[in-house]
User: Which sequence fits this backbone?
């Protein structure tokens, strides 16, 4: 990969430097190749036809009309779709979602793929898909939470218990001096990465080459191998850059597999790019919720009870349940806590992990309700949170591996100027007469870590290489992981060849759960240590080396040399050691995983505090977030520039959650009526005038060897609630339905 | 692919002849038409590209002090024309409040007039829509109607016209110049767009082949320049269509309102001139009570077409706001966020 020049700030260590993205130049000049930029010889284009009904079956497709259209090569439909070795509904883990791969004529949600037209040009395929003019036998669509009797799902999120509790909530409420019961609603939101799910698929016998974005190369490879009954080793997935993933590119999504099937049917390479409106159904979404919170406090504002009940929805055919209650497990101290989940089944595409799944929707409701409780107690929202600060994780009773939330509150409040807040709602105005509101929320996200493997190489010329099938969704993995690689090898960043983003590299697990830097970084760290240990063996056992006899633990690697730990003036270049040993290169592979013993002992979470200022027009209700300050503690910061960007992105997503994003579903048809980026609003530049992210120092000796927690999702949590609370403070009107829109503030 | 003829017209006569065939459509910047074609929502059999027609890209001063804006003048070019913006500041403000910079750089004067509604049911090929298929029915009725019409709608169509540009234009008595097989004619913009009635598919008075060649603003409309504003309420701070917008222009005579112009956007299938409100203001002192009376008059005939009753109250309040702003006077510099309630009074850029 050609690289952007980097500015060096500190000698001897890459971790901690605010390097610019190594792939930045490629991206701004358009030279970075995303999946759909690939055009192998003989390429055909495939376009999906999707269902206009939400429930029922397809009774007719005008295949003849489509086939007769000039340029159309084939119409793939249930009758002629390549047979799969595994049913698309096979599900052996919570990450394997049931897929719609033309297995039958049934329709389970609007925008479900019902046919794929393959043609010489994308225009011909598009017109072919239109000519199919499907006819349906439709049944009434069910899309609202009140449609059915709720049930308790067997698990929520990624296999978590649907219920957790400590103490006795009813007793705590009975004993309370003050009580509230409030219900908050959050809408369906759809992943809309800039880059839609796209694939270029080419078969060569039973070998398959795919250019497609993936947050989980090995998992996608495994799923595809199962569906087509081929050896995973025969599948090469190249995914050097993703134009965003947000959870929807974790496995192999239906449209991507349909592209592979189309290539098989046509016997030529095929490109399939999901159209923007087709992103609203087959590739996941954040499920709608209704969250009912009951809280009680004693006379001093201490929580005597916290109950968080979530009602959410999954599809009729698969299980994913938005785990909104998880935040109440960890965030506030109370002797009596209960978090439970119920669900209904609707005629929708299966919901999925969407950036901060559970935490985003759950914290929006919890932080709003906490604000209401503080208001009921007549307490400052920050003082209330400090009063109920969880010194240990409340339900599990575990100590935190580290928790600098107090510092986050303090630094965020100081920077924001929280101390000068007038507590009375509707009490603050700006010079233009707009209502001003200040609100805050606590941010939280678990510090997860998964398994990964990396391969490190040291070469006789003194250079190193690090190979890992890691994923860059835009978060900066090309840069941050290379920084870790350089340090692990004791080399300058420029002396390391770093490769990632391809399935033929060692398995880096999943880029999800804000865990990729910890996961892939730990494997890189271990691989680097392993290859340096081999080098140390060579040197310390060689009488000709100045390091002879130092023992392999008695040396350290720095700037391309091994040095005696007890006397750094004695050392030797890597190249000299390898040259004398006659070795062209040495290679080490290492695996890493989280330490189960540490996880048994400690609760591991990143934390933060978000402060929001909003302005609201007193007569017209229009809302602007005028200022956001977030302070986050997430362990060691590998690259502060990239981390700040992650926080900004998360906080802007929080603005989106609070004010903009929601799928508008027609209750009669079950169709989503705003399935375009013109109408499915996310914030534009003018919606985010001023945003700051403070990196609060936190040293975590337990979470993993590098001390890294995640930063990719936490920015959303806290922010949506902070904005909702600021709107209440500005207007005195409490809107309990997200997104908060101006019609609710007209008074 | 969806095949169609493409004709690049060299003269207006050639364009009109080519576009008089059934199924033909004029193509200018295509910022709306091409999206509709890609979405399979319209299927012209012939596109007549008018972008090379000579003489339609000029802004001309007229002897009466008015201005003729050629059909092909780009929205951005018009808004940034200093003389035009000085004479018709609310028109410039409306233009700059619409779409995005990229779209404004491409979109044309006539194209803006002829843009189609943003009704989601119009854009959803699976929904019944009388505009797309006369007689098919209107599935917006009883559906998701938050943004729909509150004035002049019928049971056949409850869509709105999305233009910002047209709102001050209609307030200022703009005239549309049209050429067709039968020659030239002129139509006041107020009469150019049609209300849905029972023929919502007929959106304007244009006959087949007729070409909008210019929009003219009369010289007397520049008399409002000192007290002329456009105000737009939308769901995000920029790059969003109006829920409701108001163009307000006043001529003040010694502390009294000599003449008022008021038009509303986002409320009906055409830019809505509120003549009763204008009449109610003549001779009144420019104060809140008068503005509220005018707002009540403007919305007297309003009724919700669904879950959008809030738009009636919002429109009332926005009329009061726009009149208040107009009374205060046209700002020296274009606000950083044109037409926004969040435009800093100082004109300082929002992203300081």
Assistant:
């Amino acid at each position: 990969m050609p690289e952007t020049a980097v500015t060096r700030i500190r000698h001897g260590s890459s971790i901690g430097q605010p390097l610019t993205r190594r792939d930045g130049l490629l991206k701004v000049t358009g030279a970075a190749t995303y999946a759909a930029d690939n055009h192998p010889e003989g390429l055909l284009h495939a376009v999906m036809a999707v269902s206009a009904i939400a429930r029922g079956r397809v009774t007719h497709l005008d295949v003849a009309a489509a086939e007769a259209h000039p340029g159309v090569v084939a119409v793939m439909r249930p009758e002629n779709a390549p047979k799969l070795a595994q049913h698309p509904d096979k599900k052996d883990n919570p990450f394997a979602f049931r897929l719609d791969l033309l297995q039958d004529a049934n329709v389970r949600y609007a925008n479900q793929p019902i046919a794929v037209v393959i043609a010489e040009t994308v225009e011909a395929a598009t017109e072919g898909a239109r000519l199919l003019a499907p006819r349906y036998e439709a049944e009434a669509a069910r899309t609202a939470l009140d449609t059915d009797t709720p049930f308790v799902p067997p698990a929520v999120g990624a296999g978590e218990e649907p219920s957790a509790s400590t103490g006795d909530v009813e007793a705590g409420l009975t004993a309370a001096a003050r009580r509230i019961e409030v219900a908050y609603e959050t809408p369906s939101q759809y992943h809309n990465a800039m880059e839609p799910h796209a694939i270029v698929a080419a078969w060569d016998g039973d070998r398959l080459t795919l250019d497609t974005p993936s947050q989980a190369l090995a998992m996608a490879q495994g799923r595809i191998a199962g569906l087509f009954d081929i050896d995973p080793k025969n599948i090469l997935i190249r995914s050097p850059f993703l134009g965003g993933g947000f959870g929807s590119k974790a496995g192999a999504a239906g449209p991507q597999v349909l592209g592979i099937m189309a290539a098989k049917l046509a016997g030529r390479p095929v490109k399939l790019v999901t159209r923007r409106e087709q992103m609203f159904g087959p590739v996941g979404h954040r499920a709608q919720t209704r969250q009912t919170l009951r809280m009680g406090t004693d006379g001093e504002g201490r929580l005597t009870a916290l109950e968080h009940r979530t009602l959410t929805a999954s599809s009729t055919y698969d299980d994913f349940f938005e785990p909104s209650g998880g935040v109440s497990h960890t965030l506030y101290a109370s002797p009596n806590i209960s978090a439970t989940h119920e669900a209904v089944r609707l005629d929708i595409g299966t919901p999925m992990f969407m950036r901060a799944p559970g935490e985003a929707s759950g914290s929006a409701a919890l932080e709003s309700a906490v604000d209401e409780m503080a208001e009921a107690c007549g307490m400052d929202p920050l003082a209330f949170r400090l009063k109920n600060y969880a010194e240990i994780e409340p339900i599990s009773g575990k100590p935190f591996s580290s928790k600098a939330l107090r510092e986050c509150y303090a630094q965020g409040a100081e920077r924001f100027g929280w101390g000068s807040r007038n507590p009375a709602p509707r009490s603050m105005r700006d010079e233009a007469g707009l209502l001003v509101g200040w609100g805050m929320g606590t941010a939280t996200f678990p510090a997860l870590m998964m398994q990964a493997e990396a391969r490190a190489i040291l070469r006789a010329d003194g250079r190193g290489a690090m190979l890992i099938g890691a994923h860059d969704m835009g978060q900066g993995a090309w840069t941050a992981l290379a920084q870790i690689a350089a340090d692990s090898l004791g080399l300058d960043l420029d002396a390391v060849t770093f490769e990632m983003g391809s399935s033929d590299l060692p398995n880096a697990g999943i880029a999800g759960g804000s865990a990729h830097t910890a996961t892939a970084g730990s494997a890189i760290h271990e691989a680097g240590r392993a290859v340096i240990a081999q080098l140390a063996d060579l040197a310390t056992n060689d009488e000709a080396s100045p390091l002879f006899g130092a023992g392999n633990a008695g040396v350290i690697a720095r700037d391309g040399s091994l040095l005696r730990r007890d006397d750094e003036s004695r050392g030797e270049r890597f190249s000299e050691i390898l040259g004398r040993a006659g070795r062209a290169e040495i290679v080490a592979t290492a695996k890493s995983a989280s330490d189960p013993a540490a996880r048994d002992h400690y609760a591991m979470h990143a934390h933060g505090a978000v402060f929001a200022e909003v302005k609201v027009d007193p007569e017209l209700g229009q809302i602007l977030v005028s200022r956001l300050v977030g302070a986050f503690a997430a362990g060691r910061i590998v690259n502060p520039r990239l981390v700040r960007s992650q926080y900004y992105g998360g906080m802007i997503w929080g603005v989106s959650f609070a004010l903009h994003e929601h799928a508008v579903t027609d209750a009669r048809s079950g169709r989503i009526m705003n399935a375009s980026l013109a109408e499915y609003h996310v914030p534009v530049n003018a919606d985010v005038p001023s945003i700051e992210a403070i990196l609060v120092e936190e040293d975590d000796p337990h979470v993993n060897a590098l001390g890294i927690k995640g930063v990719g999702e936490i920015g959303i949590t806290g922010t949506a609630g902070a904005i909702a609370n600021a709107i209440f403070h500005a207007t005195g009107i409490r809107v309990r339905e997200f997104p908060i829109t101006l019609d609710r503030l007209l008074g | 692919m969806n095949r169609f003829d493409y004709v690049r017209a060299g003269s207006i006569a050639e364009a009109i002849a080519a576009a008089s065939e059934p199924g033909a459509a004029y193509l200018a910047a295509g910022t709306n038409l091409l999206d509709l074609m890609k979405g399979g929502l319209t299927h012209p059999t012939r596109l007549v590209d008018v972008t090379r027609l000579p003489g339609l890209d000029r802004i001309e001063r007229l002897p009466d002090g008015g201005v003729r804006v050629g059909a092909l003048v780009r929205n951005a070019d018009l808004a940034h024309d200093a003389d035009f913006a000085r004479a018709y500041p609310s028109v410039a403000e409306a233009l700059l409040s619409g779409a995005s910079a990229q779209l404004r750089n491409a979109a044309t004067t006539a194209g803006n007039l002829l843009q189609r509604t943003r009704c989601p049911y119009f854009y959803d090929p699976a929904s019944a829509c009388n505009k797309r298929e006369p007689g098919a029915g209107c599935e917006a009725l009883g559906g998701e109607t938050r943004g729909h019409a509150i004035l002049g709608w019928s049971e056949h169509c409850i869509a709105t016209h999305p233009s910002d540009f047209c709102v001050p234009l209609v307030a200022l008595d703009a005239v549309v110049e049209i050429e067709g097989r039968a020659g030239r004619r002129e139509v006041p913009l107020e009469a150019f767009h049609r209300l849905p009635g029972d023929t919502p598919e007929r959106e304007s008075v244009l006959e087949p082949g007729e070409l909008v060649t210019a929009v003219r603003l009369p010289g007397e409309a520049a008399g409002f320049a000192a007290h002329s504003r456009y105000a737009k309420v939308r769901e995000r701070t920029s790059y969003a269509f109006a829920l409701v917008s108001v163009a307000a222009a006043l001529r003040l005579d010694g502390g009294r309102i000599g003449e008022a112009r008021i038009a509303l956007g986002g409320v009906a299938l055409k830019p809505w001139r509120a003549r009763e409100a204008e009449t109610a203001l003549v001779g009144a002192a420019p104060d809140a009570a008068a503005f509220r009376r005018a707002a009540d008059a403007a919305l007297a005939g309003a009724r919700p077409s669904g879950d959008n009753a809030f738009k009636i109250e919002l429109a009332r309040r926005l009329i009061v706001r726009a009149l208040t702003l107009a009374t205060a006077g046209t700002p020296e510099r274009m606000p950083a966020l044109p037409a926004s309630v969040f435009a800093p009074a100082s004109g300082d850029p929002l992203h300081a």
Remarks:
- The first helix of chain A runs from residue 24 to 28.
- Chain A touches chain B through 44 residues (CB under 8 Å).
- The domain at 380-448+600-745 of chain A is CATH 3.30.365.10 (Aldehyde Oxidoreductase; domain 4).
